[in-house]
UniProtKB/TrEMBL annotation:
GO molecular function terms listed in the Swiss-Prot or TrEMBL record: NAD+ binding; prephenate dehydrogenase (NAD+) activity; prephenate dehydrogenase (NADP+) activity
Domain named Prephenate/arogenate dehydrogenase: residues: 1-282
Pathway: Amino-acid biosynthesis
Protein name, as recorded: Prephenate dehydrogenase
Family designation: Belongs to the prephenate/arogenate dehydrogenase family.
A Gene Ontology biological process term: tyrosine biosynthetic process
Record keywords: Oxidoreductase
Length: 282
């Protein structure tokens, strides 16, 4: 099988490296950057290139692009995809992408499947991609209703060969709501927190909490701006909800209300333990 990987950044580059290292499939890569293309070839992440990014020779196409670029690529190459080809996108939001390409896929005889790898690091770009990026990770998948079960089973086996431990099937709506809380909110909080007036003086005053809170502030602002705005309704709700919860702590501290503050902290501790038990069970 010929697997095309479009967009050789952190996720796309890791996909290409994983497919080449862990399967017998031929990997054809593409990136708008000539430098990245040849870096991928020199590092043996791909067997070759898709001519001008055209997917015509590929049976499976993995898209490691920003959401809007994903939509643009699919629409631009709608008639180039082989009949029966499968196109999987890896963008961090699903509603905006899946809603706009379903009809395009149906009209042109290829299958589109939305997906989101629950893996990554705080740095971006092909340089930081690895063949083992997805080891033990979850792949969230948002197939359209009626997607062939045999195809989904084949995709499941393919992605598990790349290192994924499990596939989580859900709707685009649930995906975006959950990602706003589990990922996007954390990046907003980290970005805001690191801009505190005392941040430059943290050295010798942190046992690790500061690094934990600021790690993901080292983000790609262009990508995350697009992701935040494409999921703005869910993310704004999460930010507002967090502000309300934080206000409760501030109010108790200002009032020197030990009972309320202790209760708030107890609730947080117990919630954390409950979450840890879920992780341990998994």
């Amino acid at each position: 099988m010929k697997v095309g990987v479009v967009g050789l950044g952190l996720i796309g580059g890791s996909m290409a490296k994983a497919v080449k290292k862990k399967t017998e499939h031929t990997v054809l890569g593409w990136d708008v950057s000539e430098t990245i293309r040849y870096s991928a070839l020199l590092m043996e992440a791909v067997h070759g290139f898709m001519e001008d990014g055209n997917p015509k020779d590929c049976d499976l196409i993995l898209l490691g692009l920003y959401p809007q670029l994903t939509i643009e690529y699919i629409k631009a190459h709608a008639k180039d995809f082989k009949k029966g080809a499968v196109v999987v996108d890896c963008a961090g939001v699903k509603r905006v992408v899946c809603e706009q390409v379903q009809a395009v896929a149906e009209e042109n005889g290829f299958t589109f499947v939305g997906a989101h790898p629950m893996a990554g690091v705080e740095r971006s770009g092909f340089t930081y991609s690895t063949a083992d990026m997805f080891n033990g990770a979850t792949l969230v998948v948002t197939p359209y209703k009626g997607t062939d079960l045999g195809l989904m089973n084949a995709l499941s086996m393919f992605f598990k060969k790349l290192g994924f431990a499990r596939l989580k099937f859900t709707t685009t709506e649930e995906h975006d709501a959950m990602i706003a809380y589990t990922s996007q909110l954390a990046h907003v909080v980290s970005s805001a927190y690191v801009k505190g007036a005392l941040s430059d003086n943290f050295k010798d005053f942190s046992g690790g909490s500061f690094q934990d809170m600021t790690r993901v502030a080292r983000l790609n602002e262009n990508m995350w701006t697009e992701l935040f705005l494409d999921n703005g309704d869910n993310l704004a709700n999460e930010i507002d909800s967090l502000i309300a919860r934080m206000q409760a702590y501030s109010t108790a501290i200002k009032a020197k209300d030990a009972d309320t503050l202790c209760e708030l902290l107890r609730e947080g501790r117990e919630k954390c333990i409950a979450i840890d038990e879920i992780k341990d069970f998994d």
